[in-house]
Amino acid sequence: MIVVAGEALxxxxxxxxxxxxxxxxxxxxxxxxxxxxALGRLGARAAFCSRVSTDxxxxxxxxxxHAAGVDTSLVQRGxxxxxLAVATIGSDGAAGYAFYASDTADRLxxxxxxxxxxxRALAFGTCSLxxxxxxxxxxxxxxxxxxxxxxxxxxxxxxxxLIPDPAAYRARFRSWLPYVSLLKLSEEDAAWxxxxxxxxxxxxxEAVVLTRGAAGLTVRTRSGEEVSVPGERVEVVDTIGAGDxxxxxxxxxxxxxxxxxxxxxxxxxxxxxxxxxxxxxRAGAQxxxxxxxxxxxxxx
Length: 300
Hints:
Order of helices and strands: EEEHEEHEEEEHEHEHHEEEHH
Largest sheet: 8 strands, mixed
């Protein structure tokens, strides 16, 4: 089983991009949430680990997980409101966000008991590693499960407006790396964090995957290999959830395996690029189903 830990929220997406007073359409979202849904749609055995509100939005978020076949037995519940993220969509389909996250349910996540022994991978990222007190609980989960040999993926998915002290966050990010198996970053995230690929690899991850938008994906491994694949040309509606879909596709193929060869990385990256491209053709975070993609590269 692959567990995704982090926030579930509601994206409020403008129905008429470019109109400052456009009506907003609520969409299920949150980077970790999207990753869990994508895993379920891609046919992986997945579970979600978070704290979700008992309000109407929270119920809709759980419905979305169940529809994707995601296990919710690790979800904590609370009466606090659901976090809201108001999206703005640029002319190129890229999304920006303003967050309404004061005293919301996902911020009050508690460290759960040790995860079941059949968990083979655990993914983290986005707001859940920023907003306290939940951030410290997620960090403790990362350290504990990594120490017992669970494969871990980290996608920082930087939201600068939520980070009051960038220097402190960058230092904290580096403190996570010894516990990370696979680090995935966008080019923008990498630049914000200091563009230190060699230093990040030396700190712990087996590989770093860099997403480059329409230009594709690149991986660099600790052993010195570098593999790149191009992006797929599609008509972009928006990019919401594309990076989260990359997370899911990579976890579907890579989690639990030993070091990959260059051809194996090429196959994995092409699969992730195709999945992300399909997500970009749809409004909001709507990852593809397994039947929409070529067969996955061999999974152990």
